[in-house]
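Narrative of activities, Objective 1.

The group set out to show that a structural description can be obtained from nothing but a protein's sequence at a throughput compatible with the screening campaign. Below is one input-output pair from the validation batch, recorded exactly as produced.
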Amino acid sequence: MLTGLKARRIKLRWRRWATIDGEREGREGAEASDESGPLRQCVVTRKRLPKERMIRFVLDPSRTLVPDLVERLPGRGMWLSASRDVLEPSTAKAGLQRAFARAARGPVSVPRDLRDVLEAALVGRISELVGLARRAGQAVAGFDVAREWLRNGRVGLVLEASDGSKAEQARLLSGRAAATPMIAPLSSAALGRIFGRDHAVHVVVASGRLAEQLRIEATRLAGLRGQRQEATGSIDEAGVTGKA
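Output recorded for this entry:
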């Protein structure tokens, strides 16, 4: 049987612990949703990284997690590293549930196949951006015209089909400026659909906002696929190259 004094001491101790825990959780939630400045904090790893290497999420009215690739949806933003490591099926579900619930300060429903959802969304986003560039006259397909744009210094981004010939890639890029980034996130059939043909292997995009956004989205996709990203002069396993 606890005496009155001991009971009051225990009660006060628990109250202090609850206050400390609440303050800590509040700080963590605020840090995870901080959307000022160039860096964002991953809700899982707690690391702060450039937002170009991360994906923003918000909650819908049913508190289901929704990816916001264009970073315009209303609501409290939560950020996740675009990395396969944080989305491994063997470890992701419980860890993601806890991490997002902590950042959202309440229950969250995380899609079971989140990595597949994100990969499909990024592929769709990249296809959409290439289509926009084509309609704006900022992207062309075909070896000869791509080679001409490269020689004239008009190119801000080279987009090669992921299943294209390595020899043809090397031949096209032999005249490329070393600092011009290159991506290869889509197949030749997917590129062909954008340009109204069966297949397209070589695509170049003019310097500007669309080229930069394409590079960012391709880098995110490569991270989700667990592929390396290197600043080299040839296409690597990540499908993203160029000077960092």
